[in-house]
Amino acid sequence: MKKLTPKQKAFADEYIKSGNATQAAIKAGYSDKSARFVGAENLTKPNIKSYIDAKMAEIESHKIADAKEVLEFLTAVMRGETKETVFVQFGKSYAEEKKEADMKTRISAAREIMKRYPGNDPFIAEQIRKLKAEADSAEAKAMLNAFEVQIRQEEFGTDEDEERTDDLASAVQDGMKGVFGDGDEIET
Hints:
Elements: H1 6-18, H2 21-28, H3 35-42, H4 46-63, H5 67-79, E1 83-90, E2 93-100, H6 103-115, H7 122-153, H8 159-180
Antiparallel strand pairs: 1-2
């Protein structure tokens, strides 16, 4: 990539500050008469555009907190390390005081931190355990139903064979009660 001339760099830096290409060109040292044209033209040059884009990204990354910074701040609030300025009235005058966050604010910060670590939350862990149990139960019921349908679909030569199949299905259901609990009915 072609390196910027001192004038181009000055133009780009001024453009980043003001967002006005004409004014940036004038401040960079271009003539007042050609500033509008030069400013617009400079914004189309790839090397100047790349420089401006890189600087804007750098500026934005410093303005916006990342996840680590947010967690560090919340942790400092939770631990009482971050102080806030409050004004206390003494008669007719006010004094500036630094104080730690109150307990409600600390607890709120702790909750915000824990939201980012769901594996550490006992309530969420219990919900996950319950969902897994329900999924296992539904899968076992589906297998039982599929097995029973398969048995019933076979052709039988006598009523005695059908009775044995019904007895087998009842035995399978009785065996599955241990999986689902004694109070749960198994749909067939």
